[in-house]
Amino acid sequence: MARPFEAIPVVNLIPEQPMNTGRLLADMYNQHGPIFRTTVFPNPTIFLVGPEANRFVLSSNRQLFSHKLGWGNFFDVLQMLGDGLLTMDGEEHTRHRRMMNPAFAINYMDRYLPIMNRIIRERVDGWIAAGEVDIYDEARKITFDIAAEALAGMRPGAEVEHFRDLYMALLFSEAQSPEEWMMKISKIRAELDAALLQKIHERRANPTDDILGMMVSVKDEDGTGLSDAQIIAHTNILLVAGHETSTSLSTWLIYLLTQHPDYAARVLQEQQQVLGSSDEPTLDQVKQMKVLHNALQEAERLYPPVPNGPRGVTQDFEFEGYHIPAGTFVLYAIAASHLNPKVFPDPEKFDPDRFAAPREEDKKNPYALVGFGGGPRICIGINFAQVEIKALASYVLRHADLELAPDQQIMQVYGATGFPLNGIKMRVREKVRYN
User: Fold this and answer.
1) Which pTM value belongs to this model?
2) What is the DSSP string of 291-307?
């Protein structure tokens, strides 16, 4: 007979947790096992940690969990962005994702890579002229510019900057009360919705092959299309998720490579072998960057863009001998799972070769690496993000010498997503020659 919910070990979340989420929750996993609960939230909330817990939530028992309840209650996604792919559940999500999948297939990235290469080149060349930059701020400009132009066909310059300002105001609005916050969010959303509705009308008049254009024209097998509200919500999710997480992950990848010059030299050697005399990679060349890919996976492991995946429990279930009632909230612990020494030996160490043959620690433990989620609802933008981040790291390493500016506290901070505390400032010089 299953033990009652009240028997699940209780942990106290300390004020330092946002600065060290992965390590603290990994320690709790070592003390209590793969399930424990906290009383700091208004509703009963449990953490599930480790590959089997991830598999349980993401794949084998995913029907027990609601994204809408999870993301909606923990991070106000519905109010901020609308009901898009991130928050849809069940058949509704399946139907919408099926319509959007073709635009995110790996071979479709050929359409986006020229845009990525151009924006990366223009922005990074500006780093060299500036001499010192915050690579987190710069990565945000790059990833938003790419998402806005490639996914939504927004015009570079004033239009992209206007949308970036709106999304930044939406994500980082401060207020003295929930009522004031809601008033601010509602005002920003009204302006954003009006701007996106204009883009939708433009696409109906002049169809395009970007994702916004596809969403305007796509129909399911019954001939049903997407409403304006649904297109707006999907666009909001794609533009926010399409740059917010890539900003964090690309920043940490570049930082880690600058701090591990021996491995960076191996990446550069691979770049020379793959690219030869060409300056901007093709999709086939990006696919060949195995050494860089392993470094990207290690950055994902050490600094996952999202620390915990929130879900609402819709049906009673049992896990590890405990009864979990409907109405509970679950956080599957991504950052903690990535620091499990039983899966990733010496987990604090930067060691990209753990993902190379013959070790392949992630493949020996499916659902151990879940920075992009996993299972049928793995992040729809995983191909887009990985190609973009590799193209950025490739260009930076081949054209710039980076040196960490002194007197900085380098640390990941987590809310709904992760970001480096106070950014990461780098001194930048033009690379004298490409080895």
Assistant:
1) 0.95
2) HHHHHHHHHHHHS-S-S
